Amino acid sequence: MKKINVDIVNPFLESMSNVLATMAMLEPQAGQVAIKDEDIACGEITGIIGLVGDNFKASLAVSFSRPVILEITARMLGEEITDIDDTVIDLVGEITNMVTGGAKNLLDQKGYSIGLSTPMVVTGVNHKVTHKAKGPRIVVPFTLEAGEFFVEVCFEGV
After folding, report:
1. Percent helix / strand / coil, the chain, rounded to 5
2. Which of 8, 88, 102, 158 is least crowded, fewest Cβ atoms below 10 Å from its Cβ?
3. Could you read off the pLDDT of 35-66 as tens digits, one per residue?
4. In the prediction, which pLDDT does 1 show?
5. Distance between CA 69 and CA 38 in Å, rounded?
6. Which H helix or E strand runs over 99?
């Protein structure tokens, strides 16, 4: 198994939990960390963002199943959404931004200097997630009452 740098991965997981607890009043439960070898997304909608540091490159992908992102959207916006539409797509981009911003703050505290790109959102069953970094892809499933979502972190150079 490839070595996992928890100094890089844990801030993203912590930030994901913080964003959902604060913005949607949800307490996701993290599952088992694994190495992901395929490009197929684990969910139906994915937010992806790149990061560049002084000595590494990384990217974050957050993939949501349909029921999970519709539940999160309803809680965050206070309105019922029944399909993945422009509102949901925008929200996934914003969640991706918030999670990465939170992780950036945590990584800054550990001495990492990081720049962020603009997030992009991909939708559709079995869509591909292409990371810009060439390192190991770490995936962590999170569980909510509505189902699962997945946080992927890929990094190289650390």
Report:
1. 35, 30, 35
2. 158
3. 998 899 999 999 999 988 877 788 999 999 99
4. 45
5. 22
6. helix 86-109
- Measure the CA–CA gap between 121 and 129, rounded to whole angstroms: 10
Report pTM: 0.91
CA distance 119 to 93: 6
**For the residues of 47-96, what is the DSSP string, one character each?**
EEEEEEESS-EEEEEEEE-HHHHHHHHHHHHSS---S--HHHHHHHHHHH
Tokens 């505290």 belong to residue? 109
Q: Which two tokens stand for residue 31?
A: 């599952």
Residue located via tokens 């997030």? 119
**Total length of the chain:** 158
pLDDT tens for residues 80-130? 999 999 999 999 999 999 999 999 999 889 888 888 999 999 999 999 998
Dihedral in degrees, nearest 10, Cα atoms 88, 40, 1, 148: 40
φ/ψ of residue 24, rounded to 5: -125, 0
Tokens representing residue 56 in the block: 């590494």
